[in-house]
């Protein structure tokens, strides 16, 4: 079973359908409007450094919150009966099948002044603005991508043998120690998948910030979306820098994961 | 402890479903607005009269189901293969597979459009159903790889060999042992693919050609004015259909579990 | 599990066959129509479903697809091999498409109704000899404010969007052309033709506004204004008309400086497949009753003579939907600007917002 062959169709497919887009991005990024080689696009892209860093930061925070929120759920799900596992998987995914814009609209209704959440908080004596700030953007991101963290965690944790946990408990580990010494190391591949699936889209997403944020919260995905229509070159240059940044992050993540796996 | 987990999972589910409740509530609002103007069922009546929404719905479902099934097969095979690569090669293959989720949708969309257009001129075809399907497979397959891969890492190949020893042919052993082992990963990969395909707007927009419309395009292009509550009505119906389907499947699963339990 | 998979595949097959079969059932021909999203009467509110009616009368199947901005329309037209029979570009986009030779001259004899439009639309700057276009709908930008949130003031000018008393309750367009046009008017620049230094002036003006703003919006404006979240906003006057219907405290005004008159037109691209079908479609949409139905649905004005009179009372009497001729004298219509000027404006706008 040391076969590599099954991956050939996929690799061929991906080469055809991603190499060309990449080539195109490279072409646009290193040329100007008239097709002459140059770095003007990168100089233009430099003007968006602030948004760029802010977006990576928001993506990072959102991913972290997703991980913290999702981890216990993944564990809980993995300890259930098969049928319950399936139901929970579906339950976490179904909300995502409603159109994204409709869900964002619903959040606007929920968060706005005198909306349900604001009214409840006011009754508790908390008066604050819930929408039109970075907090609301992060909330939107977490909401949008939480299931993509829960599911890979659950998938991996359901592989962990309950007897292993019981054995550790018998050997005198308390719950925390079991988590740290048994569950956590074995769940690392799931963490890596989950972080990839949440971080990558949050870093490049668009619209969430435009709907839930204020006047300062535009993200790099929105910038690319707005710029690309009129200026393919700068748009591509920004996209390229973003891709490289995320790719570096992922490579580090993967190295870390492999080492952990070996150490365990 | 168990109770705590339960309460927590319930809270997170509440968080996921809060917006869904709001968006379904608005499907009964007698006005094209977020201001409540009284109860009505007219959007449901109008929905079924609207031939264009209905045909977009069929297009969307056809694409989402086909793309996610094909992407799941392709991605699962790829994950098995990728797992057998070693060292740098493995990291390379893994990250090439990530590239297509890395590049912003608009860039992927535009480059696929250019590619299909060139191919279309060469081989005399126009963009439409098939090009959208191919684009969606490209979009979805990496998510399947990401959710199956961590599950494989812990896989025990001796069971596969045991199955061969016990007289299974390779295909049987693969199906009964490997697929069975990977099922949770395959299932979540499929769900994720389906989700991304349903909601995708940008890539579909560029690859659909002149006579193919999907729901998400119809919804996103409404944002110049207002999103019609007919869309809320449609979402509510889809939601109920999915829940019913899930209950039926769950009911069956439980029965099977019971049978197995009795036998044991 | 097997049964589940079988079930899913069955649904897929059913969906595919539905998708395929609905597209080939007894029509004499088909046309590909590419319009703005949600921009045609769809049969709700006891209104006419104009596309269904057309299909029924002419036995021609309409493949109806939608876009959201003129730029989306342009990028599909200019760099893909998709073929459309009828498209709905706005004023400046028409000018650009004509310049680039992407539109056909229309044969008015096959579109007799197109002669029955208000004279003004036969001599617009983007198509001065009325060769390429048939107007579909038109309107202007306007102001909307909540009378409970502006104190004693009665905003009647764009300058109120810079009023410090409304700090944090002002909205602005999330779209460079419309936002810059307002700023340019206030800087004394003509929004029809401008240069990069004009843009810089307007950028400065918009930067002054930014700290006072709550948000840059498009469709969110409806929620913001109807639910008393914001005090004042610019938006398309016909949409303001519908907002006032949902919140009695809202007042719509046309700013005294004048505003942007925009016209969306029906055109036939050069590479159209079914020109005669397209002509029939355009002619049908320009019929008085059909145009009135569409106008009632989208609440923008109809350019067809007699359609206004056929519309319901509130609509035909609204100054927001049908501004007077005197007001239109003060309005401007966007022109096609050089690509690098537009790119510059877009870039400045994105930087402003981030």
According to CATH, what is the class of chain A?
Answer: Mainly Alpha
The shape of chain A is globular
Indicate how many domains the architecture of chain C comprises: 2
Structural class of chain C: alpha/beta
What's the CATH C level of the largest domain in chain C?
A: Alpha Beta
Assembly state: heterotrimer
CATH level-four homologous superfamily name of chain A:
MetI-like
Number of strands of chain A: 0
Number of contiguous helices of chain A: 12
Which pair has the most extensive contact? A-B, 95 and 98 residues
- Percentage of residues in helical conformation of chain A: over 70%
| Helix-strand sequence of chain A | HHHHHHHHHHHH
Predict the CATH topology of chain A.
MetI-like fold
Helical coverage of chain C, percent range: 40-55%
Question: Could you please describe the fold and organization of this structure?
Answer:
The complex is a heterotrimer of chains A (264), B (264) and C (354). Chain A is an all-alpha fold and 264 residues long. Chain A has helices spanning 8-29, 40-46, 49-78, 82-93, 100-111, 116-123, 134-157, 162-170, 175-204, 208-212, 220-230, 232-263. The two termini of chain B are 29 Å apart. Chain B is built from eleven helices and no strands. Chain B has helices spanning 2-25, 42-49, 51-83, 87-102, 105-123, 129-153, 157-165, 170-199, 202-207, 215-220, 229-263. Helix content of chain B is 80%, strand content 0%. By secondary structure, chain B is mostly helical. In chain C, helix 6 packs parallel to helix 14 (339-353). At the A-B interface, helix 1, helix 3, helix 4, helix 5 and helix 7 of A face helix 1, helix 3, helix 4, helix 5 and helix 6 of B.
């Amino acid at each position: 079973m040391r076969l590599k062959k099954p991956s050939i169709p996929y690799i061929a497919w991906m080469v055809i359908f991603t190499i060309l887009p990449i080539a195109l991005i490279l072409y646009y990024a290193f040329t100007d409007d008239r097709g002459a080689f140059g770095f003007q696009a990168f100089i233009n892209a430099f003007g968006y450094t602030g948004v760029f860093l802010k977006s990576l930061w928001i993506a990072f925070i959102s991913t972290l919150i997703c991980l913290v929120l999702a981890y216990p759920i993944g564990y809980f799900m993995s300890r259930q009966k098969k049928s319950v596992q399936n139901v929970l998987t579906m339950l976490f995914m179904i909300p995502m099948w409603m159109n994204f814009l409709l869900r964002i609209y619903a959040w606007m209704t929920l968060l706005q002044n005198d909306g349900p959440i604001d009214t409840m908080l006011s009754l508790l004596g908390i008066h604050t603005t819930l929408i039109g700030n970075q907090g609301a953007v992060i909330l939107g991101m977490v909401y949008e991508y939480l299931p993509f963290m829960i599911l890979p965690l659950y998938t991996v944790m359901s592989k962990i043998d309950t007897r292993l946990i019981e054995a550790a408990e018998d050997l005198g580990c308390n719950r925390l120690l079991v988590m740290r010494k048994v569950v956590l190391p074995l769940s690392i591949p799931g963490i890596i998948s989950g972080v990839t699936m949440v971080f990558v889209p949050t870093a490049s997403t668009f619209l969430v910030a435009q709907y839930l944020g204020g006047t300062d919260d535009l993200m790099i995905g929105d910038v690319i979306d707005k710029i690309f229509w009129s200026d393919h070159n700068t748009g591509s240059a920004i996209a390229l820098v973003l891709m490289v940044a995320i790719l570096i992050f992922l490579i580090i993540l993967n190295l870390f994961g492999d080492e952990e796996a070996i150490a365990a | 402890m168990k109770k705590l987990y339960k309460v927590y999972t319930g809270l997170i589910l509440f968080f996921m479903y809060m917006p869904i409740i709001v968006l379904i509530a608005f499907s009964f609002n007698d006005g094209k607005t977020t201001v409540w103007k009284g109860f009505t069922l007219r959007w449901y009546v109008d929905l079924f009269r609207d031939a264009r929404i209905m045909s977009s719905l069929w297009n969307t479902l056809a694409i989402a189901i086909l793309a996610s099934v094909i992407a799941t097969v392709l991605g699962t095979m790829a994950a098995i293969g990728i797992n057998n690569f070693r060292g740098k090669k493995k990291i390379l293959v893994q990250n090439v597979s990530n590239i297509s989720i890395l590049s912003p949708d608009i860039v992927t969309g535009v480059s696929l459009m250019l590619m299909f257009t060139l191919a279309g001129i060469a081989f005399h075809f126009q963009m439409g159903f098939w090009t959208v399907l191919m684009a969606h497979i490209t979009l979805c397959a990496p998510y399947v790889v990401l959710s199956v891969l961590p599950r494989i890492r812990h896989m025990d190949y001796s069971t596969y060999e045991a199955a061969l020893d016990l007289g299974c042919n390779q295909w049987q052993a693969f199906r009964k042992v490997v697929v069975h082992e990977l099922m949770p990963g395959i299932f979540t990969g499929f769900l994720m693919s389906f989700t991304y395909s349903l909601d995708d707007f940008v890539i579909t927009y560029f690859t659909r050609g002149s006579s193919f419309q999907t729901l998400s395009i119809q919804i996103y292009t409404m944002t110049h004015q207002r999103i019609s509550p007919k869309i809320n009505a449609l979402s509510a119906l889809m939601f109920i259909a999915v829940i019913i389907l899930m209950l039926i499947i769950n009911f069956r699963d439980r029965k099977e579990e019971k049978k197995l339990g009795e036998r044991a | 599990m097997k049964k589940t998979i079988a079930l899913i595949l069955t649904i897929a097959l059913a969906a595919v066959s539905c998708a395929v079969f609905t597209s080939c059932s007894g029509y004499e021909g088909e046309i590909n129509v590419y319009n703005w999203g949600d921009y045609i009467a769809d049969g709700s509110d006891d209104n006419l479903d104009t596309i269904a009616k057309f299909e029924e009368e002419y036995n021609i199947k309409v493949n109806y697809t939608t876009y959201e901005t003129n730029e989306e329309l342009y990028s599909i037209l200019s760099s893909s091999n998709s073929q459309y029979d009828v498209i709905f570009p706005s004023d400046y986009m028409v000018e650009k498409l004509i310049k680039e030779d992407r539109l056909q001259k229309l044969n008015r004899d096959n579109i007799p109704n197109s002669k029955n439009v208000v004279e003004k639309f036969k001599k617009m700057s983007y198509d001065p000899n009325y060769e390429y276009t048939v107007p579909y709908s038109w309107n202007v930008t306007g102001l909307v404010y909540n009378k409970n949130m502006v104190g004693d003031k009665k905003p009647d000018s764009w300058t109120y969007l810079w009023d410090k008393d409304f700090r944090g309750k002002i909205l602005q367009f999330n779209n460079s052309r419309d936002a810059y046009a307002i700023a340019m008017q206030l800087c004394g620049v003509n929004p029809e033709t401008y240069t990069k230094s004009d843009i810089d002036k307007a950028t400065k003006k918009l930067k002054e506004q930014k700290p006072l703003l709550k948000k840059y919006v498009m469709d969110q404006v409806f929620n913001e204004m109807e639910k008393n979240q914001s005090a004042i906003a610019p938006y398309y006057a016909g949409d303001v008309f519908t907002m006032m219907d949902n919140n009695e405290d809202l007042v719509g005004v046309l700013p005294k400086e004048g505003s942007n008159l925009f016209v969306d037109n029906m055109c036939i691209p050069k590479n159209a497949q079914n020109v005669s079908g397209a002509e029939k479609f355009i002619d049908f949409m320009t019929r008085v009753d059909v145009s009135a139905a569409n106008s009632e649905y989208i609440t923008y004005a109809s350019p067809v003579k007699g359609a206004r009179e056929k519309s319901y009372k509130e609509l035909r009497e609204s100054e927001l939907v049908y501004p007077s001729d005197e007001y239109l004298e003060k309005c401007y219509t966007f022109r096609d600007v050089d690509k690098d000027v537009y790119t510059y404006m877009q870039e400045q706008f994105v930087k402003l917002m981030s």
